[in-house]
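Could you please consider the sequence and fold appended to this message?
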Amino acid sequence: MSKGEHTSRNGGWKGRLASPLARHIRRRDHLDNANPGLAQAAVLQDLLSRAGNTAFGKDHGLEAIANIRDASEQAAAFRAAVPVRDYEGLKPYVERVVAGETDVLWPGLPKYFCKTSGTTSGAKYIPLTEDSLPNHIGSARRALLHHIANSGSAEFVGGKMIFLQGSPTLAPTAGGVPLGRLSGIVAHHIPSYLQRNRLPAWDTNCIEDWETKVEAIVQETAGQDLRLISGIPSWVQMYFERLLAHTGAANVKEVFPNFSLFVFGGVAFAPYAERFRELIGGDVTAVETYPASEGFIAYQDGALGEGLLVNAADGLFLEFIPANEYGRSDARRLGLGEVEMGVNYAVVISSNAGLWAYDLGDTVRFVSLAPARVLVTGRVKHFTSAFGEHVIAEEVESAMASALGRAGGQVVEFHVAPEVNPKNGLPYHEWFVEFAVAPVDEAAFATALDAALQEQNPYYRDLISGAVLRHAQLTALRPGAFRDAMARRGKLGGQNKIPRLANDRSMAEQLMAHD
């Protein structure tokens, strides 16, 4: 083996330093998470002790709750005093912080506000504090270190890395706190030893228009030794397609021979897997993460499919509401030491960013309890239940992966919506699919989708067998339909996730629209 080959495989001096650090971090993380209930009790105690003198703390008696010594009694007192809130419920406090008032939700002022878009609240301003930033930055770092420790390979650190993300441009709020997108804020905190490896360039990253930005990234990266690529799969897929069109290469591996690691989060990867395999020219290791603006919840610490390790000791106090109780006044709020495997839960978060019993809007299912590992199963408000079936994202994603395996084809993206009042016949689920490679027999593909969803969801199966619904209908979309629909919604690219399913036809109508 030549010296150059050895350096490529081991990541050079950075790789040699990263390997022992990775093994140390893996050991420490597993120790921290061996007893998640105990770790969470310590987190709650710390949050209560530090926030007692804030406006929120005084309104809810947090100082008195912090003085309760028994952990279970303390958690019960916290739940009695602090109700679950969505952004609208917390907004009066947030608006005071945005205006510049200190010691409202957390001591002092936040270091940043993360701007996200909400379905009912318009723009949302999520605080990021000096205390909460290590959770966002450190979790992504630990995910990569776990990969190094598990695989024995630090090859990617010796080359270039690209993160398809929002613009790092920040603007001040009325109270003077910098405001931006989460991924753009994190870009300001990349360690100096990685800055020279990072792409795209700052000016390119600051381009706001997504189509223009992707083209600039393609131009900038085509001749680079790119080894790690990170982003939401749908937008990374778009980047790959533009890259191949620009270079004329048969696959991504021809452009980036050392590309070895894909880091993603936000959606299930299985429906994209075959299309990625074709675009890349083979398999590449994938590492899954579960970041949110409100906190970095979990990350992959083992092989894909084993679940994501929950951040039990990292400034986040997590509670879980059984999905079938969500929205009820008597819904249980369970800690990490109280959850069960195989149950769908809505996630509630309290954090050292100043969020308190905040309804995150996500659902998860535990696949391990000690340490706690989860699979992200969807969004509380993203489901199809027009007929009482309550189909969730995990089920349609699994059904799509199954249909692709049975009937062939490759998808760009898909969406499921109910058709409640068809012109003829029984109502049905309509699957809107943009194919990269169409199946040979679309009718067989639709049959495979329907059969797989019946296997996943017994309520849906009963509606089909009881002749309440007819079998699923497939609508193949023109190329670019999802891109155009997301552009109409003002959510093209960056951190935006394409909704996989809905309980109405608003997204469906945009998918069928033509400019």
Remarks:
- The chain has 20 helices and 20 strands.
